[in-house]
């Protein structure tokens, strides 16, 4: 996936992963009342930040990683009619491993 933006320093560009809509008891929840997902896929990463000695510290996440982040983390941006989040790497709570992804996908 090619995006015309490259995050700077320790920032990460994330696309939210929409969960399949579940209807319980026949009640359909409108889009405005739904909570936004807290999982996403890393699309692009910056080069890393500098430590006090001037050495660059690379990021732990890479494009393609599936991550978990806080409900109010990051800044929402719209690029080419797609919504993304730009956040610092330290706002990411965790990276899903392949076994966790397959378990959560089976729900």
Q: Give the termini separation.
A: 27 Å
Q: What's the gyration radius in Å?
A: 16 Å
What proportion of the residues is helical, as a percent range? under 10%
SSE order, one letter for each helix or strand? EEEEEEEEH
Structural class: mainly beta
Number of strands: 8
Largest sheet: 6 strands, antiparallel
Overall description:
With 107 residues, the chain is mainly beta. 7% of the residues lie in helices and 35% in strands. The chain contains one helix and eight strands. The strands form two sheets. It has a six-stranded antiparallel β-sheet with strand order 6-7-1-2-5-8, with no helix packed on it. It has a two-stranded antiparallel ribbon with strand order 3-4. The chain is elongated.
What features would you highlight for this structure?
1 helix, elongated, two-stranded antiparallel ribbon, single chain, mainly beta, 8 strands
Quick structural overview:
The protein has one helix spanning 98-105, and strands at residues 11-16, 39-45, 49-50, 56-57, 66-69, 75-79, 82-88, 92-95. With 107 residues, it is mainly beta. The strands form 2 sheets. A 6-stranded antiparallel sheet has the order 6-7-1-2-5-8, with no helix packed on it.
């Amino acid at each position: 996936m090619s995006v015309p933006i490259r995050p700077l320093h320790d920032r990460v560009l994330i696309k939210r992963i929409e969960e399949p809509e579940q209807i319980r008891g026949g009640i359909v929840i409108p889009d405005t009342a739904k909570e936004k997902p807290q999982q996403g896929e890393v699309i692009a990463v910056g080069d890393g930040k500098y430590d006090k000695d001037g050495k660059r510290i690379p990021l732990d996440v890479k494009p393609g990683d599936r991550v978990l982040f806080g409900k109010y983390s990051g800044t929402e941006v719209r690029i080419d009619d797609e919504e993304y989040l730009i956040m610092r790497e330290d706002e990411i709570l965790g990276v899903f491993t392949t076994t966790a992804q397959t378990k959560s996908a089976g729900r």
